[in-house]
Amino acid sequence: MALLLHGSSAVVLPSPSSSSSWVNPSSISSCNSSSPFVVGFSAPAQQRRRSSLVVVASQKSAFNMDYRMNRDFRDFRMALKEEEKEEEKERKEKPPHIPLDQRWMFEESELGGPDIWNTTWYPKAADHVNTEKPWFVVDATDKILGRLASTIAVHIRGKNLATYTPSVDMGAFVIVVLISWMDAKMVNAEKVAVSGKKRTQKLYRRHSGRPGGMKIETFDQLQQRIPERIIEHAVRGMLPKGRLGRALFNHLKVYKGPDHPHEAQMPVELPIRDKRIQKQS
């Protein structure tokens, strides 16, 4: 006879080699459902009791093992949660890693400090806001037209500074912080000088757009009629062509005579380093 134990159920199977001795299933304690096994019984009652004690001991041992495993697993989960909280806290405090090819889109504070690998600087939107452009004033009396115009164009574009950026828009909607991007103002425009025979040989052409509408006049004629246009024409040719150049051209203020309406801007003298700009008498 054999007793099959699995979970909380017990089934008694008769053995053909044994006599008519039967085992009461109720005398055998049920085992843990996770430990199925088959116990053979062909011994007296003392051995059966010993076998039942072994089953109970194995059940208690399995229960204690499961309890320890559950306790260890619970402690492990709690430790894992604490570790995840620490990692999340460090991740919030530490800025995220940004690839080198995408760092130009972020501010320096977002990168976690200065970028020591990519030293290329490009002005951000914050560099164009809430800034005041300096105003310069220059007297055009007896100054060579070309050299004066090139000096003005350099200061209007900001090419005299290390932070010069050729593609930055200085239009009406953006105020660039670069201090070299400035407004130049001309006075005594009618006294600007030219070298050689340009006063009579230099020609200015304009067209009305109609057939036969070409108008040609010399430097001397245009200076007598509209002296401001001579300097505007020279500076416009030295600015970039396009909407950036059109915006920069608005920063040039040319006036006939020594007076100008920009005293509130407190303009300073335009620095001129070219000694050949002044016409020698």
TrEMBL record:
GO biological process terms, semicolon-separated: negative regulation of translation; translation
Keyword Ligase: no
UniProt cross-references to InterPro entries, sorted A to Z: Ribosomal_uL13 (IPR005822), Ribosomal_uL13_bac-type (IPR005823), Ribosomal_uL13_CS (IPR023563), Ribosomal_uL13_sf (IPR036899)
Keyword check for Ribonucleoprotein: yes
Domain of life: Eukaryota
GO molecular function, one term: mRNA binding
A single cellular component GO annotation: cytosolic large ribosomal subunit
Keywords: Ribonucleoprotein, Ribosomal protein
CDD domains the record matches: Ribosomal_L13
Family: Belongs to the universal ribosomal protein uL13 family.
Protein name from the UniProt record: Large ribosomal subunit protein uL13c
Taxonomy of the source species: Eukaryota, Viridiplantae, Streptophyta, Embryophyta, Tracheophyta
